C-alpha cells in the first residue's frame, strides 16, 4: 500500500483488522509504503476493510496485490520492526488533537487529565518536531524526554491508540507548561493564570505547535489596539481562535464545508464571512477594519483547548513575530523578540524543530482554496498528473513573496510550507535552511533547477547558485506561466494534454518583454505558452512605490483611459478630486510620460488598487499587501449588482487588450451620481468577471483549448472567483482552479516544477 | 563648434581656451605630453569617462564632475592626487559658450583641489556621434608609505563610516533632466574628497581598511562589491544613514531607494573598530565630513549580504541589482 501510510498508526490498524478477519501473516514499513503478507483468512474482506476506513491521518494512494509464492504459513499476525534505513519517510503533517485525546484531557479519571501535550497516533505534532528521518522518537525533539513505564507500555502495545506514537507523553515524563513574566516562572496553574491575564486585557505570548502566537481577548478593543500598536500593524487583520464551533457560529454564518474544514486535522485558519447579527461588543472592531471576513480557527492542540476553555471566548492568535520577520520558535528567541510585546508568556519545553505558520484557507464555490500552505498541509505530497512519472527530479524555488519551494520526483511533488517574504534576511535564512532540510528529509537530488524570470528575486539568485553548485541546468519559468501550470498540475491535466487557455489575474510578474505582467490570457502547455491577451498596460508609476500607494494607479488608469484633463473635469469638485488635489499628480504624470521608473504593467492587482483608490480605500498608502483590494471585495460582498461595468476588447498588434476604458467611464458617472461604494464595487467585480470569462471562452474557442485554467493572487478574491466560475459554467470546458495549492505566489514553485519537468520530457 | 573643414582652426581655438583656463607651465609648454618628477612611494593612476545629461545641473556640471570624480578615484586609495589629463569629445554644433563654461568650471574645480590638468586632447565629431560633450579624465597621485587600502580588506567587526548624506547627486541630476520640481531644490554633492581622505589617513593610519566613493549604483552597489571582494557581510542601521529630507521625499516619490542612488562627493570607509572613533572625529572636523556617521559594521556572512536593520528589528537584504530597480511585489 502506497501513500501516506507510515507514521500514522497504519500498522497497528492493520494488525487489529487482521485479527478480525482471521488473517495470519505480518505487516511492515518498507521503501515504498506498507507491505502486508497475508496467508489465510478472508483476504478480500481484509483489504476491503483497510481501504474502507483507514486511520484518520492515512491516505492510501495505491494498493497492489500479488500472490505470495513458497512461504510457509505461520500462526498469528505480527508487526515487523523494519530495518530503519529501508523505510521511506514518515515526514507527515502535524495534525490537530483528535476527539479521543480531547475527551481524555477533560476526564478527571485519566492520567492525562488537563495535560497540554497529550497526543496519539491519530493526532499531534509531527513535522514541527521532526529533526531527522526515519520518523521515530530519537529523531524528534521529544528525544529529550524519557518515556515513563506507563507511556512505554502504551507505546509498545499494538492494541493501544498510542502504539508507536512518537511524541507520546504524560505529566510524569513529558513536556511541561508554565507561565512566565519577565523571565520568571509564576507558580500555580499556568492555564488558569494565563486565562485570567487574557480576560484582564493583557497580551500573551503563547508557544504552540509551529511557533509562538501573540494572543489577546478578541472582544477587548483596547487590548486589540494595544497589540496593533506594539506589533506596529495598524490594520492587517488578526486571526482568531474560538473555544468551539458554537462560538464561531455566533459570529459567522457557517456552511457545512466550512465546518468540515475547521474540524479538519490540518486545522487551518478559515476565512469566514461575518454574520449579520454579531452580538454587540462580542468582537473588537479593530480586529479587521474594513473587511467583511474574519479568519477563524479551532483549538488544535490540548494546550489551546485547555486555554480556550478557561478563557471561554475568542482570542486573537496572531503569529509571534516582529514585522516582516519569521515567527519566533525558540524560547530565548521569543523572550528577546516578543518580550517587549507581551505581558507574559505561556511557555513549554518541547522544542519546535521547524517553524510552521498557521495555514489559511477559504471555501469558495464549495471548494477549499488555500491562501497559505503551512502547518497541517506541509509536507504532504501532491500527485503530478499522468505522464510526469518518467520526468527527472526537479527543485523549484518559487518567487519573492510568500515564498515556498517544491521538490518533484517520479510523479509526485512536495510543496514546502510557507517560508515568508525573502526581502527579509531572516526569512531568506529560513528559505536556505528549508532548501537543505527538504532535500535531506526527502533524499532529493535534482537534475534540473527551476526559477522565475525576474533577475533580482532572491529565489532566482538562490536557484542560480544551486544549479551551479549541483552542476545541473537551470530552467527559467515566466511567472504567470508558472501560475497556470500550477493550476493545470493540481487538477491532473496530463503532461501531453491539449493546450489550455490560462487566465492569470495577479499582482506583478516579470514578463519576457521587460514589462511587468499581471492580467494575462495565455495559450499554455506545460512546456510553453503564447500570450494571447492581457489587461491594457498602464505605467506602474514609480515602480514599487505604485505597489504601496494606490492613488498612483488611479492616476495612471485615468490618465491612460481618458487623459488627465478629461478625468479632472469628470471628477469636478468631488471628494475624490479633493484627495487627488493633495497629491503631486503633475510630477507623477512626468514620471509616466518619461517612463521614469515606470514600466508598463498589465497587473490586475494594480487595477484593483486603482478602483479601491477611486472609492478612497487605502488611497495614500497600503498598510499591508492587498489592503485596498480586500476592502474593495468587502464592500461588494453581499451586494447584488444591478449591472456590470463594461470592458472592451481591442486589437493591439498581435495580441488583444482587455481595456477598462468603458469601465472607468461608467464608474466616474456612478461616482458623480453619488452611487453607494458597495454597488460600485459589486458592478466592478461583476464587470471584470464577465469580461474575463467572455474573453477566456472566446480565446479558448479560437485555440481549441482543452480547458480553462485560473490562477494568480487575484483569484483569492472570493467574489471574483465565484463570479468567474459562474460565468464559465456550462462553457463545455473543464475549469482548472487552485485548491490545496495557493493561487498566489505560494503556488509558483509547484507550477515551475511542472514546467521544468515537462520541458525535460519533451 | 564645427567639424571637418575649418576644424583645425577650431581645434586651435579650443586648445587656447584650455591653456588659458587651466593655466599651468606643463600645459602651456605645448608638448604632446606632460613630464614630471616621480616621487617616493607608490603611485596610483585611474581613468574615467564622464557622460551626463544634463551637462549643467544644480550643484555642478560635467566639467567639475570630471575633475572631482577622477580625483576621488585616486583619493580612495588614500593617495594625494597630483595631475590630471583631460580628453574631450565634442559634438559638432556644440556652443562654444557652453564649452568655455564647462572648461571654466573644470579649471576652478582643479584649482580648488590644488591639482593640475597637465595634458589633454580634443576631438570634434559629427552631429549625432556624441551627445554635446563627453569628457574623459585620467589622474595620478601618490600613496603614503605603508598604506594599503583594498576592497578585500574588510573584516568582521570593522566599523562602517559614511562621510555624509546619500542620494543628492543622482536625484539632483534626474530632477533637472526630467524637469521634476520639488519643494526644495536638490543640489549635487559633487566635491573632491582628497582633503577629507588626508585627514582620515592621518587619524586612522593602519586602522583604515578601505575607502570607496559610492557613485553609480549608490551605497548599495559599493558595499555589495566590497562584501564580495572581502567575503563578508554588512549590517547597516537604516536610521543611521544620513539622507536629506528633500532627497528622502524625492526618492519616495520616484519609488527609488536612496541606497541605490549615485553620489559624487561622499565616501564610505571601513575602519578597524579601535580606530573608528578617531577617524570619525577627523571626518567631522573636515568641511566635507560634517554629517559623517557610523552606519553599521562588517559581519561574517556566507551569503555576503548587505543588510539594513530597522529600529523595530528585521533585516532587509539590500542586494545588488542586475539592472534598474525593478518592481518586485506580486
Ligand atoms: Fe504572482
Ligand atoms: Mg574610475
Ligand atoms: Zn489523539
Ligand atoms: Zn509518561
SSE layout and pairing:
The complex is a heterodimer of chains A (762) and B (330).
Chain A: E1 2-4, H1 10-20, E2 24-30, E3 33-40, H2 43-52, E4 59-62, E5 77-79, H3 99-106, H4 149-156, E6 177-181, E7 184-186, H5 190-199, E8 204-207, E9 212-217, H6 221-231, E10 239-241, H7 245-249, H8 256-263, E11 269-273, E12 293-297, H9 302-311, E13 315-319, H10 331-338, E14 344-348, E15 360-364, E16 367-372, E17 381-383, E18 394-396, E19 406-409, E20 412-415, H11 425-441, E21 448-452, H12 458-470, E22 474-477, H13 479-490, E23 500-510, E24 516-524, E25 529-535, E26 538-539, H14 544-548, H15 550-562, H16 564-571, H17 575-581, H18 585-594, E27 600-601, H19 604-614, H20 627-636, E28 648-652, E29 655-659, H21 661-672, H22 677-702, E30 708-711, H23 718-728, E31 735-736, H24 748-761
Parallel strand pairs in A: 2-5, 8-14, 10-12, 11-15, 18-21, 21-22, 23-30, 25-29, 30-31
Antiparallel strand pairs in A: 1-4, 2-3, 6-7, 6-14, 8-9, 9-13, 10-13, 11-12, 15-16, 17-20, 18-19, 19-20, 23-24, 24-25, 26-27, 28-29
Helix pairs in contact in A: 5-9, 13-24, 15-16, 15-18, 15-19, 15-21, 19-20, 20-22, 21-22, 22-23
Chain B: H1 7-22, H2 25-28, E1 42-50, E2 56-57, E3 60-61, H3 62-75, E4 80-91, H4 96-113, E5 116-125, E6 133-143, E7 159-162, H5 168-178, H6 194-204, E8 208-212, H7 218-230, E9 233-237, H8 245-254, E10 268-271, H9 273-284, E11 293-299, E12 306-309, E13 315-317
Parallel strand pairs in B: 4-5, 9-12
Antiparallel strand pairs in B: 1-6, 2-3, 4-6, 7-10, 7-11, 8-10, 9-11, 12-13
Bound molecules: fe (iii) ion (FE), magnesium ion and zinc ion (2 copies).
The site of fe (iii) ion (FE) has 8 residues of chain A, from helix 13 and strand 23.
Number of H- or I-type helical stretches of chain A: 24
How would a crystallographer describe the biggest sheet of chain A? 11 strands, mixed
Domain unit count of chain B: 2
The CATH class assignment of the largest domain in chain B is Alpha Beta
Kindly state the mean pLDDT of chain A as a whole number? Answer: 95
Net shape of chain B: globular
Pick out the low-confidence regions of chain B.
none
The string of secondary-structure elements of chain B, in order, is HHEEEHEHEEEHHEHEHEHEEE
**CATH homologous superfamily heading of the largest domain in chain B:** PurM-like C-terminal domain
Count of individual domains of chain A: 5
Total E-strand runs of chain A: 31
Ligand species: fe (iii) ion, magnesium ion, zinc ion
Strand order of the largest sheet of chain B: 8-10-7-11-9-12-13
Over all CA atoms, what is the radius of gyration of chain A? 27 Å
CATH topology of the largest domain in chain A: DHBP synthase
Return the CATH architecture of the largest domain in chain A.
Alpha-Beta Complex
- In helices, the fraction of residues of chain B equals 25-40%
Catalytic activity (chain A): an acyl phosphate + H2O = a carboxylate + phosphate + H(+); C-terminal L-cysteinyl-[HypE protein] + carbamoyl phosphate + ATP + H2O = C-terminal S-carboxamide-L-cysteinyl-[HypE protein] + AMP + phosphate + diphosphate + H(+)
InterPro entries (chain A): Acylphosphatase-like_dom, Acylphosphatase-like_dom_sf, ATPase_NBD, Carbamoyltrans_HypF-like, Carbamoyltransferase_HypF, DHBP_synth_RibB-like_a/b_dom, HypF_C, HypF_C_2
Enzyme class (chain A): ligase
Domain YrdC-like (chain A): 188-376
